[in-house]
Each structure stands twice: as C-alpha cells, then as structure tokens.
Amino acid sequence: GTGAGARDARSRSKMLVQKMLVQTPLTPPGLGADVVMPSINEDTPTTTSFEARALELLRLGDNARALELLEGADKLNIRLVNMLFTALIGTGVGVDAAAVRAQQACAAHGIAPNASIFNNILAALDKAGPPEAVLAWLAKMRAAVPVTTTAANIALKAHLQRRDFGAAAELLRSMMKRAAGADYPPPPNEMSFNTVISALGDAAQPERAESVLSTMIDAGFTASPVTFTATIAAFAKQSRPADAARVLKRMLAARLQPDTWCFNAVLSAYANAADPEGARATLANFEARAAEECPNAAPDLVSYNTLMLACARGGRPAEAEAAFQKLLARGLVPNEVSYSTAISAHARAGNAAAAQGWLDKMTAAGIAPDAVAFNAACSAHARLGDAAAALRCVDAMRAAGVEPTASTHAILVNALVKAGQLDAASASLQALLVAGERLSAPTFNTLISAYGKAGRRPDAEAAFSAMLAANVRPSLVTYNALASVYALEGDIDAAEAAVHAASQRGFAPDRFTYAALFNACEALPARDRRRRAVPHVTALLSSRVELTERLRRSSARLLGDDSFAALLKSHRGSGGGGAATRAAQRPRASPSLRVEAPEFVPTGAEGAEGGGCSAGAAAEAGEDDGWTEVQTSRRGGRRGKAKPPPAAAASATIRKEKPPPPRTSTAPQPSAPSPVRLAGVPLTRSKSNRARLLELAQSVAAAEAGDAEGGSPASGDGQRGSMRSRSVSSNLADALTVPPAVPLTRSAASELAITLGDDMRLE
Question: Which residue from 122, 33, 42 is spatially nearest to 79, judged by alpha carbons?
Fold first, then answer.
C-alpha cells in the first residue's frame, strides 16, 4: 500500500512536470539582479529541457513555481541543486537553512557538493548574512573542495567588514605568494585588490589604499582603471583633491584611459573640499579630453551636479546656477539632485527667498521635491533663525506627502536655537523622542553646543544623556561640543575625559578638539596652564591636524613663545612632527581608535592628571604602526583592457614596507661575493623596478658574505663600509628571505617584490 502510494505520487509529479515543461533555450546565469544563479559549467555536459524550464522560472523571478518544480523532480544534478538553493532564497528561506537543504539534496541524490554550490552560498551570505557566517562556510568549503578565488574574495570582504585588517592582509599576502600546485589559498585577481582598496577607503585610510595599489603593481599584477578609480575615491572621501588628482596622473602615466566614473571621482574630491575652482578646472580638462581623445568618456549629469555641489559648498550660489545652465546647454536633463543642489547653494548663502524660488522651479519642471529638496529650503530659514518659516516649510513637506527625516528634525531644532528659543528647542526634542521619531546626532549636537554657550552645563549633559538613551551614536562634533562646554568653565579634567571618550569611539582629534582643550587650559590658574597644556600641544604637533594660526597663537600663549618655538623646531627636525608642514594631510587611525568604548558619562572625574590627548588617540597617532608611506617608482602595470566599473566596485590596496635604499661602500671589500641568483629560475624582464630590487638583494648578500668570512677590514674606511653593510642587513633581516630554489610563475623582480612584502599589514 505504501509503495503503491509513493509510485502514484511520483506519477502525478511527473505528469505535472510534463505539463509545465516548455521548450526554451537556456538562459545564461546572472540575468536576475538579486538572484544567485547557478553555474552551468558542471560535469554534466548536456542541459535538459527540465533544467531550462527551471532556469527560465528563476530568470522570471517565479521562485515559488521553480521550487515546486525542483522539489518534485526524481533526480537532481549539481546544477539543479544550485537552482534549488536559489529558489529557496527567493522564497524567503534564510541562507543557512537554504544551504542545509541544498546539502541534504546533494546527499539524497548522491551528489558531491562542488565549488559552485559553495560559491553561491557564500555570495548569498555576503549579501544577507553576518561576516562570521561567511568565514564559517569558507571553512566548510576548504574541508570539502578547493577554494576558488571568488570565495577567497568574499572572505576578504568579510574580514574587512569585521575590521580585522590583519586577517585580510594575511589572506591577500598568502594569495600573492601562493605556491605552485597548492589548493589554498587561490591566486588573487583584480577584484581581490579592489576589495581591500575599497574597504580602506571606507575606513578613511586613503594612504594605505594607495599602498595596496603600489604593492599590486610592483608585484606584477595588472591594475585596471577600476582599481585606480577606487584609490582616487578613497582620497575623495577625505576631501583631498590634490592626492586624488595625483593618482589620476599616475593612472595616465600608466597609459590607462580614465572613464567618466574616474573623472567624477576626482570632481567629488574637489566638491568635498569646497573647491569650485579646482572642480571647474577638472571639468574643463574632462570636456577637452572627451572631445579630443575619449569621446566615450564625456561628462554626464553627475559631473555637472558635482560641479554645482562644489560651488554650493564653496558659497558660490551664482556659479552653481551657471553650472546648471551649462548642464542644460549640454543637452542634459536636470534631475532632483540638480535642483536640490541649487536650493542648497542659496540656503548656505542665507538667501531663503532664492532657495524657495528654486523649490518652486523644481515643481514647475514636473519634478516632485523630495525630502532632500525640502530640507535644503527649510535650512535656509533655519540659518536666519526664522523658526516660523521653517515650520511652514515642514508643513508644506507633509502636505506634499513627503515624511520628515532625521535631518528635518535637526533643522527645526537648529531654527529654534538660532532664534534663541532654547527651551522650545528642548521641548521639541523631547516631543520627538516621545513620538519615537528617527533622530540623528546633529539634532542633539546643536542643543548641546547652545547650552554650552549659554553656560547651562547640566542641560548640555542632560541632552547628551538623552542622546545615548535614544541609541543615537555620538559624533566627533558631539564630543567637541561637550569639551567646549567644559572648557568655558575651565574644567580641563572633564574636557580631557570627553576627548578620550571620543578617541575610544574611533574619532581622531581635529582642530576643534584641540581648540577646546587649549581653551580649557587657558582658563586654568597660571601655575597649572603650562603643565596641562604641554601634552596637548605635543600631541597636536605629532598629529596630522593642520596647525592653524589660531592654534599656533594659543600654543604660544600657553607654553610661551620661546618654549613653543623650540618644541615646534624639535618636531620638525626629528621628522616626527609636521602638523605645520603637513597641513594637507588628515589624521590617521590608530589601533586604539577602533576599540568600542563604554558609554562616556560626563562627570569630569575620568580625566587623568595631565593625560590630555596623549592618553587617547592623539598620542598614538604618531606611533609607528608598521606602515610606511611609499611612492612606487613604477609608473604603471601591464596594460590591460579597461573594464567598465561595477555598480558598486569593491576595492582596496595593501601597502608593503619598503626599506631605505642601500648605501654602497667605497671601501675595498675582503672578497667579492658572488651575485645573488634565484636558483634554477631564469630572470625575465619585468616592468617593476627590477634593477633597484636586485641591487637591494645584492647589498644584503654582500653584507652577509662579509660577515660569514669573518674578515674585519683593517682600515678605518673599510670599517665604516662594513658597518654600513651590516646596517642594511640588520634592517632587512626580518623582511627579506630569498628561497634557494622556488619555481616562479612571475618575473624574478616581481617575486622579490612580493617577498619584501612579507610584513605587509593593514592594521
């Protein structure tokens, strides 16, 4: 009875399948944007109409029917298991549960899971799962099948999402040094480096992003326009247009053609730096290059919108309007970003009438204003302290069916503060909290700062406590505002505690941080000022914060003109300082800045005596963390076909430490050592700086050979020459090892570049 029932069920299932089968050509994988499509390059050479039907249903997004079809099949192969996994994900099944069911299907049908199924699982976890789940499944993959480069790249991204830069560096380095015939790790590809470069850009570490680019090129790998553009974007995010333009020049020197996305990244650097002149000059070069050399890389709507943004941030509303007219003259159609940027340009200039006029133009053009446009118009009234007009703007926003955002609430609170209505602003904030509205740090920052200026320290601390209770993450501005509150009262302990809490949150001090600390020191009795100020001035000079004229004057007042001048000279002379000489550079994150701190309670009792910034981020910012800022002598990698950038290009770069060039002794050597050779491997031509790398190896070998023979030159010159050689050898003892006989797949110079990168770190 049971067997007959099972046979009847299978018969009905086959009949249902036969009715649903449609003869259609096989659709290539990847057509569904959000569907993890199975690979068709498996060991079964043919594709049945059943598979074609299942794949067609997945392509159409009909995951439920695809799942029904696949679960009713008598026999599955690895391609169908991949489709089953995709259908399960598409019907809302969790990735882990879908992966388990796919594995169960493999076991039930006698199929050995292969790399494609693991790649699909990892790709799905990369989109929806925590990075820890990705790493756990990678371990399962290693135990079952050889790990692919695609899987290793996903693992790289997981390490970086966890901010485990050391693990990411180790994985990428081992991929670069992969031994011939090894199953793990797989060799890297361009996306491996791009993933790391992108993550470093997001982590505000553009120098390290560029160092990965340098390592990639020096090791003989090909950097494409996407890789260079990701590096440019890393500097753009930190408002460093000069460095972004420098990387662009480096790209051009490598004979790679920049595309529209690349030029727009450079433009965004000027926009973030509020430099309309630089943005305009870059766009002019962009237009000329498109006309003369690259007609397929012409400026687009984003280009002109970015120019408008640069003008808006630079306080040039008339020039922003001119850029809008140029956009129209190019035959481009402005969008909501174009109009919102024009509104913002006038709002920043305090011209509420003009901002409202552009909002009306936007509506007349048939473009419905969004929250960004309404917020920009509302901020124009807030800047003038016209709270009533700002409220009317918000009412119009709601009438248009646009819900207020966290920025809207921050603007309203700011309008009330500007109008001098602190109690009304506090009441409005409390009402928003009770209503459960989504709030952001600027909403609280404005009120904290206003309370501080009004001498209402308890109210400022209460606003900060309410911020923490609402689970709103404080920003550096928040802690600077608190430090300023305490500075006005001369409470240096509380100000230092606020700055230390900021460093534990991952924020490096900026010029406003040091200004608050200096103000707190200046409010102290004369006998205590210098003692408490010295650590902070020292930290400032050791950091990469610009030494503005205001900070310079404050430092001189606190330490005395002569003492400050001597301290400044000592930092410049040692090469460890240079805040005044590195004004364009930004603070770099130190290991301590990545530690999540317990919530800061502003009691003023947590500041260490005389600790200052040296107890937190500022002191550690100047410590050697294993990275060196190196400019590669190689102008470019092997030319490759330029690939269009992906929708969200992952990128990142690992920088290696490079030792100083060896000094050549002029003294006669006891004996001439034989040249360094990599045994059994012919030296092939390389585009990296082969001569420099091999010269370095020769110098180390010469030093070691001299030591081995035990000869100590008798002459003084010979002694100095021997000391120089030993210095080179000792400096590189841990960094350089030349394997006696390693089969190289790259050129000798490229392999040596990888060897020198053994101590490459991302942390």
Answer: 42
Query: Sign of torsion, CA 741 747 749 754?
Result: negative
- Residue 32's pLDDT is 31
Report the b/e string of 312-332 with b at 16+ CB within 10 A: bbbebbebbbebbebbeeeeb
User: The tokens of 487 are what?
Assistant: 């500075």
- Count of C-beta atoms within a 10 Å radius of residue 574: 10
The pTM of the full predicted model, rounded to 2 decimals, is 0.62
pLDDT at 763: 52
With contact defined as beta carbons under 8 Å apart, do 148 and 189 qualify?
no
Contacts 24+ apart (CB under 8 A), 331-337: 332/300, 332/301, 332/304, 333/301, 334/301, 334/365, 334/367, 335/301, 335/305, 335/367, 336/362, 336/367, 336/368, 336/369, 336/370, 336/372, 336/373, 337/305, 337/372
- Report the C-alpha gap between 275 and 271 in whole angstroms: 6
Which residue positions in the chain have pLDDT lower than 50? 1-7, 9-47, 578-688, 690-691, 707-759
φ/ψ of 640, rounded to 5, equals: -130, 165
Sequence-ordered list of residues with C-beta below 8 angstroms from that of 363, at least 6 positions apart, any chain: 369
Res 406: pLDDT? 85
Contact 415, 429 (CB under 8 A): no
Instruction: Identify the pLDDT of residue 621.
Output: 31
Beta strands in 395-434 (DSSP E): none
Residue with tokens 């981020």: 617
Give the mean pLDDT of the chain: 75
The residues, ordered by sequence, that sit 6+ positions from 55 with a Cβ below 8 Å of its Cβ are 26, 27, 29, 37, 38, 83
Backbone angles phi, psi at 652, to 5 degrees: 180, 160
Q: Is 652 helix (H, G, I), strand (E, B) or coil?
A: strand
Say if residue 238 is exposed, middle or buried (CB neighbours under 10 Å; 0-12, 13-18, 19+): buried
Task: Write out pLDDT tens, residues 513-561.
Answer: 999 999 999 999 988 999 999 999 999 998 878 889 999 999 999 999 9
- Name the phi and psi angles at 423, rounded to 5: -65, -40
Q: What is the widest separation between alpha-carbon atoms in the chain?
A: 105
157 and 649 Cβ atoms separated by less than 8 Å: no
pLDDT given for residue 342 in this prediction:
96
Candidates 174, 191, 179, 1; CA nearest to 646 is: 191
- Could you tell me if 517 and 551 are in contact, meaning their C-beta atoms sit under 8 angstroms apart? no
Q: Who contacts 366 (Cβ-Cβ below 8 Å, separation ≥6)?
A: none
412 in Cβ contact with 379 (< 8 Å): no
pLDDT at 179 (0 to 100): 63
Report the residue count for the chain: 763
Radius of gyration, alpha carbons of the chain: 31
Tokens coding 57: 């249903």
Residue 716 has what pLDDT?
42
Is residue 508 within 8 A of residue 617, CB to CB? The reply is yes
